[in-house]
Amino acid sequence: MPDVRDIRQHLESLLASAVSAAIAAGDLPDVAIPGTALERPKDIANGDYASTLPLRLARSAMKPPLEIAKAIARHFPADPVVEPPAVAPPGFINFRLSQGFVQSQVEHIVRFGPAYADLALGSGKKAQVEFVSANPTGPLHVGNGRGAAIGSAMAAVLAAAGYEVEREYYVNDAGTQTDTFGETLYARYQQQFGRDVPIPAEGYPGEYMAELAREIKAQAGDRFLRPPGEAGPADLTGLGIELMVRSIRQTLVRFGVEYDRWFSEKSLYDPEGPYEEAMGILRANGQLVEREGALWFTSSELGEEKDNVVVRSDGRPTYYASDIAYHYDKFVRRGFSLVIDVWGADHHGHVSRLKTATAAVGGNAEGLQILLYQLVFLKRSGEAVKLSKRAGELVTLDELIDDVGSDAAKFFFLLRSPGAQMDFDLDLAKTQSSENPVFYVQYAHARLASMLERAAEQGITPEGGDVGLLVQPQELGLIREMMRLTEVIEVAATTFEAQHLPHYAMELATAFHSFNDAFKQQGDSSLKVLTEDVAMTKARLRLVLAAKVALARVLGLMGMTAPERM
Question: What is the pTM of this model?
Answer without folding.
Answer: 0.94
